[in-house]
Design brief:
Radius of gyration: 12 Å
Order of helices and strands: HHHHH
CATH superfamily: lambda repressor-like DNA-binding domains
Number of domains: 1
Number of helices: 5
CATH architecture: Orthogonal Bundle
Structural class: mainly alpha
Largest sheet: none
Strand content: under 5%
Number of strands: 0
CATH topology: 434 Repressor (Amino-terminal Domain)
């Protein structure tokens, strides 16, 4: 299935969210593998989210925020 094309503004949102997740993960000193293990998500999924390639769902944002001990609103405010 071909990947959905996002508008320039949508791409900026996805990249900002990915950067916020990456920054919070790195602040904890965690690898993508560790974040994947803690959330029950796959490492390649975490990588694609951090690169802004994937439109992540609300439940997965909440999982990531919870294990990173970061408010969901902080991840979405960038």
């Amino acid at each position: 299935m071909p990947q959905k094309k996002y508008t320039e503004d949508e791409t900026k949102i996805l990249k900002a969210l990915g950067k916020a997740i990456r920054d919070a993960r790195m602040k904890k000193g965690w690898s993508q593998e560790k974040l994947a293990e803690e959330t029950g998500l796959h490492r390649t999924y975490i990588g694609s989210v951090e690169r802004g390639e994937r439109n992540i769902g609300a439940i997965n944002i909440a999982k990531i925020a919870y294990v990173l001990e970061t408010p969901t609103s902080l991840l979405l405010s960038h």
